[in-house]
Amino acid sequence: MKPFILLDPGHGDIINGVYQTAGKRSPLWSNGSQLFEGEFNRAITQGISQALTLHNIENKIIVPEREDISLRIRASRANYLATQYPDHHCLLISVHANAGGGKGFEIYTSRGQTSSDIVADHIAHAFTQVFPQKPLRSDYSDGDSDKERGFYMLRKTRMAAVLTENFFMDNESECCLILMSPTGRQKIIDYHVKGILEWVQQIARNEI
């Protein structure tokens, strides 16, 4: 079975100078820069999509609009697309930037042991390879690196699904040097793609 990757850029973008999601932005830093999370999420999913296409892996961004599409509609789109690819291994990746005071990377799955945990471990491992000096904010209490939460996109979608929280937009160093940097953004794209490719290779080996 071939893989089919669904990419979910969280929140809305900027339309005619108006940000579509209340909050979900960095402070205005002393250098005059500010991150709008929805713009970052779209840049990362676009980069992941382009890289996967170069690797001949089918994929689709489920929110091509710049408006802030509801979680209900996002999940419905993902579930519908999965029914159109019944002979594929479907995977949803919801991309976000973190906030709340901290640093590093987190990856979430739904509660319990599921096929999503395997994907999360691959992406977490890829993160440590691309950013060896940055913290992986993990929870190994159940034997794997992901954190488990009841996030809507993880609970309401009917395929393997992970949600990535990529550095902290309220941490000035991470925001300005990584989240708003072309080099930093490319590295974030790289560890998502590397983790996906490792997962694809694993499912291929399991089917031999």
From TrEMBL:
<keyword id="KW-0378">Hydrolase</keyword>
<feature type="domain" description="MurNAc-LAA">
    <location>
        <begin position="70"/>
        <end position="197"/>
    </location>
</feature>
<dbReference type="Pfam" id="PF01520">
    <property type="entry name" value="Amidase_3"/>
</dbReference>
<protein>
    <recommendedName>
        <fullName>N-acetylmuramoyl-L-alanine amidase</fullName>
        <ecNumber>3.5.1.28</ecNumber>
    </recommendedName>
</protein>
<dbReference type="InterPro" id="IPR050695">
    <property type="entry name" value="N-acetylmuramoyl_amidase_3"/>
</dbReference>
<dbReference type="InterPro" id="IPR002508">
    <property type="entry name" value="MurNAc-LAA_cat"/>
</dbReference>
<dbReference type="GO" id="GO:0008745">
    <property type="term" value="F:N-acetylmuramoyl-L-alanine amidase activity"/>
</dbReference>
